[in-house]
Amino acid sequence: MQSETSPAVGSLVRLRGVRYVIGGRAIFDGLDVDIRRGEVTAVMGPSGTGKTTMLRLITGLVTAERGEVLVDGEEVSRLGRSDLYRLRRRMGMLFQNGALLTDLSVYENVAFPLREHTRLPERLIRPIVLAKLHAVGLRGAESLLPAELSGGMGRRVALARAIVMDPEILIYDEPFVGLDPISMGVVVRLIRELNDTLGLTSIVVSHDVHEIAAVADRAYLLSGGKVVATGSPSELNALDSAEVRQFMQGLPDGPVPFHYPAPDYAAQLFGARR
Amino acid sequence: MRQIARELRQSLSGSLVRIGKYSLFVGRLLSETPRALLRFRLVVEQVYNAGALSLVIIMLSGLFVGMVLGLQGYDLLQRFGSEESLGTAAALGLVKELGPVVTALLFAGRAGTALASELGLMRATDQIAALEMMAVDPVRRVVMPRFLGSVIAMPLLAAIFSMIGIFGAQLVGVQLMGVDPGQFWSQMKGAVEVADVMEGVIKSCVFGVACGAIAVYEGFHAIPTAEGVGRATTRTVVTSSVVVLLLDYMLTAVML
Ligand SMILES: Nc1ncnc2c1ncn2[C@@H]1O[C@H](COP(=O)(O)OP(=O)(O)OP(=O)(O)O)[C@@H](O)[C@H]1O
Ligand SMILES: [Mg+2]
What we know:
The complex is a heterodimer of chains A (274) and B (256).
Chain A: E1 11-22, E2 25-36, E3 40-44, H1 51-58, E4 66-71, E5 74-75, H2 81-88, E6 91-94, H3 106-117, H4 122-135, H5 151-163, E7 169-173, H6 181-197, E8 201-205, H7 209-215, E9 218-223, E10 226-231, H8 233-238, H9 242-249, H10 265-271
Parallel strand pairs in A: 3-8, 3-9, 6-7, 7-8
Antiparallel strand pairs in A: 1-2, 1-4, 4-5, 9-10
Helix pairs in contact in A: 3-4, 3-5, 4-5
Chain B: H1 2-38, H2 40-79, H3 86-124, H4 127-133, H5 138-176, H6 181-191, H7 194-220, H8 226-255
Helix pairs in contact in B: 1-5, 2-3, 2-5, 3-5, 3-6, 3-7, 3-8, 5-7, 7-8
Residues 51-52, 96, 173 of chain A line the site of magnesium ion.
């Protein structure tokens, strides 16, 4: 049930006792997570448990009500705007829906961080951008607009954009959704390769148990605002907890609720005739 | 009775809170202005966007407002036997009042709503969050150029409106009603002073700040759903219109 209590020397991101409330509901209460430097850490959990929210906490897009969110030893919620931006320049994030800038072409989207943060001339920007687009297999799409891309293509462009500044921490929110098997294989390999060759630290949010098993060093399983289990994917698979088995094997019934918190169904149906 | 009092108090305190938030936001916008002007290309792009969106309706409306002024003005002035002052009356009315105000109202309805929904959609589709994540301040990169674009476009559009309006008044007064063209133009030249034109320019600059700030505020802070974006655009038009008319009265009173 508990994440291990070692001093976590090598942890780059550290969440301790995080509580986060939105819409009057505590999404997290007492969340403890460690993301180790140089590893690919997977975050799994049923839809709506707050995986995206956890990424937003780590990146300082939202602030926890209680608890610590440390990135490389710095408390994210206490950073001023310029310090936060300095930290974010070391991170790349792939949003769940791509979040490409709709008024810029694919090429300009990928070039965007370079143009904003560096004074590189076009002749240096171009090879960098093309290399990143090539890595995600979309060099040929450079002149398309985001509206002309499919969801999966958009996500791959967003991945190219996320790595264009060579970040230290790469955060992927559901990178596998909507990819065909070929692109899926490419992206899985890319995540691993980027992590190992560039010495990154990666956080991958996903439901896909099999892809996670292929790519992750460690995995966290979140449910009900807490960490339910943690370990290497094979350890998780071997764990004999009902919650973990349910999730890893995709069973509808078990301790992890399929339903969003709701009043008793029968009571609601028959009580509604007031 | 008590219920009404409570609701009044609540809506009043709600408006006060909103006015406070607006003021803070406008303060931020103004303090970012010098910096944003450095990236002038982005601003020019937005002047072009806002201007191009509104140009046609503003030209058309200017023409019709001018023509109506021509008719009404002629009818009124004729009763005092001074229809040759039509040029002066139309020019003063347009330059000082109708030009800035009607332009601002049309601008809010056309460019303002477009701005608000664009920014709202950018938030709803995580583009604002993506900018944040790329360590690019969305206020600086996205909001400021659009705000300044409105501030610059507004006086230009108001000037176009007034010029076309005067042409419309001339069309009706001179061509249709037979006012002497020499009188029409020379009286106008004699009576309209630089101060009158400045009054119009100041007004439309202030309206540009108001309409631009309201549109970007509502869009940038829209609730990130389809409904939220819709509400933000509606609020942009309503708030802008009321604020423009209110400011118009205050500015007129001050500058008269
Ligand atoms: N603006 C909001 N107002 C109220 N509740 C919200 C809001 N945003 C998110 N939530 C709630 O927060 C919870 C977590 O959302 P989050 O997007 O983090 O889930 P997730 O684990 O990423 O799910 P998915 O796998 O479907 O992407 C959801 O149950 C959602 O209902
Ligand atoms: Mg999510």
